[in-house]
Write a structure and sequence with these properties.
Layout (H helix, E strand, L loop, with lengths): L16 H5 L3 H11 L1 H15 L3 H4 L16 H18 L5 H14 L1 H10 L8
Length: 130
């Protein structure tokens, strides 16, 4: 006596005879994933990058995800910053956060290290008095 009737109430733990005779397609897919998780991860990441919402729209406030750092500017630099902000707001037809502008300026500066080096040399860095 098996204790269970056949039909809709079949034993859900019993082996399916069809599964035993056919190769497991799920195992094959799983095996492929195990062999190349990096390529799958790269695909997932590139898909996410193309569909990612820009930082301006996904944050709650301008300080989200940022560390506070002191910034002291000479008057002429502050004037140039203010003028750049005004021009960008005019181009975008939208308010531009001063915090966003400053971080963009830092990032662009980091991409142009030679120009930053030249500015620092103009201020006296690298000078020796021997």
């Amino acid at each position: 006596m098996t204790g269970m009737k056949q039909g809709a109430g079949e034993n859900p733990f019993a082996d399916d005879p069809d599964e035993e005779s056919e190769p497991d397609a799920g195992a094959e897919s799983e095996e492929r994933r195990e062999q190349s998780p990096e390529s799958e991860e790269k695909t997932d990441q590139s898909d996410r990058r193309t569909m990612q919402i820009p930082y301006k729209f996904r944050r709650d406030g301008v300080q989200d995800g940022r560390n506070r750092v002191p910034l002291f500017l000479k008057p002429e630099t502050k004037d140039a910053e203010r003028e750049a902000l005004r021009e960008l707001e005019e181009k975008f037809g939208d308010n531009v956060s001063l915090t966003d502008l400053r971080e963009a300026l830092v990032l662009v500066g980091l991409e142009h290290a030679d120009e930053v080096k030249a500015q620092l040399e103009e201020w006296g860095y690298g000078m020796t008095f021997e």
